[in-house]
Amino acid sequence: MAATPTRRKGWELFAHPAQQNQRRYEALRAYLYEGASLAQAAARFGYTPATLETLARDLRAGKLALFAPAGKPGRKHAPKKDRARAESSSCAATACRCTRSAPGSPSRGSA
Q1: Where is 24: in which H helix or E strand?
Q2: Would you list the DSSP string of 38-85?
Q3: What percent of the chain has pLDDT over 90?
Q4: Residue 80 to residue 99: CA distance in whole angstroms
Q5: Cβ partners under 8 Å of residue 14, min gap 6
Q6: CA gap 8, 23 in Å, rounded
Q7: Sign of the dihedral defined by the CA atoms of residues 43, 47, 50, 56, in that order
Q8: Using CA atoms in the order 15, 17, 21, 25, what is the torsion angle rounded to 10 degrees?
Q9: What pLDDT shows up at residue 63?
Q10: How far apart (Å, rounded) are the C-alpha atoms in residues 63 and 82?
């Protein structure tokens, strides 16, 4: 005798997913894993059977990404360093001398 699962706080987030990828995941899970018929799973999550069949085909072929790839936390670039690198590489590429001087120091051409 199987016991019916107890619904816990937040269960409705899984029954009525708001985000598109979660909705796709839940529909495919119902069809492929839980054994619901194509028509049942499609109707439950607001798809037509043909659309759900297409999603299942794309998932099997590796053409459907349900989850974002894992990334590294933190900033991906440093704007000030990127700007300084671009300026220094442009000066090096043209073989020019930078005319900038440090604050408070005399300028190069004024001697």
Answers
A1: helix 20-28
A2: HHHHHHHTT--HHHHHHHHHHHHTT----SPPP--SS-S--HHHHHHH
A3: 37
A4: 19
A5: 26
A6: 20
A7: negative
A8: 0
A9: 92
A10: 35
Query: How many Å from the N-terminal Cα to the C-terminal Cα in the chain?
Result: 97
Q: Which amino acid is at 92?
A: A
CA–CA separation, 32 and 26 (whole Å): 10
Tokens of 36: 């619901």
| Amino acid at the residue 107 | S
The Cα 28–Cα 41 span in angstroms is: 8
Q: Supply the pLDDT for residue 55.
A: 96
Q: What is the DSSP letter of 103?
A: T
Mean pLDDT of 42-54: 95
pTM over the 0.90 mark: no
Find the helix packing angle between 49-60 and 20-28, rounded to 10°: 90
- What is the reported pLDDT for 19? 86
